[in-house]
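Training component of the fellowship. As part of building independent skills, the fellow (R.M.) carried out the full modelling exercise for a liganded target. The chosen ligand was zinc ion. The inputs are recorded below so that the supervisory panel can assess the work.
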Amino acid sequence: MDRNMRNALAGIMALLLALAPTGCSKEEKTPEPDAQTVTAAEPEPVVLEPAEPAVGIGRVMPAVVVKKNRTICIDPGHGFYDNGTGEGSYFPEGVYEKHVTLAVAKFLNQNLIDRGFDTIMTHNGEDIPEYDWDGNWIFNPNERIAFINAQEVDYAVSIHVNAAGNPDACGVRIYYNDNSYKWNDWAEPAAETIKEAIDDTVEITAPTTADDPSTMADSNFAIPRETHAASSLIEVGFCTNVVDAENLVNEEWQKSVANGIAEGIERFFDSLEKP
Ligand SMILES: [Zn+2]
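Fellow's submitted model of the complex:
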């Protein structure tokens, strides 16, 4: 072969070598996806058409109430032959503690139902309860405690009216018992939340409580002490204080204090759902 052909051949060989894969050539890597910049395609939001309202003659669909899955027991203090306090107080003639506790308890019951709670009342003031735990029916706190403990309740509240020799004593008092044999430690924080809700929502006009409409205290009352569920005894005001007494027999105010208690119970149980 002549020189030109050799040169041409060498050129072809060089070209072939250049094209041939070499041992040290790196495999091409697929670039790592950058987590910061790669975005998955957003799924199209599913737009649900509102369901057609159920059609029926004269049928009104109730507003949807979200169930709380919590049962609250409401105990209207006293009742029936037991008037409670009120004699010689600023209550009108014939009005006693039992009338006020029953009225507030019924408003509280409805308010809690409207908020999605299940409720039980120890009595409704009309039908004498059938339960009889010791064969000798006395509608005393022990009977009520036995009744409450026989139910599966998450919280119990007993409604009462206060009385004091000092006519300046006034306002709402929330009593819990911190040393009770509870299945949980809700008693004090629940009482505190109810107190805050009452302060936030209830207009209490008695002069000495203007700055602190309600107070809470650890106490030895039987219901907060003995119920298995966390509970409180709430004295919604003093019949021996002229301003409180006026509030206590006022239906709008009864609704308002019932709403404050319900608001506190709801806030407390809502706070448990959120860690
Ligand atoms: Zn009482």
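The panel noted the following from the submitted structure. The chain is about 35% helix and 15% strand. The pocket of zinc ion is lined by residues 77-78, 84, 97, 160 (CB under 6 Å).
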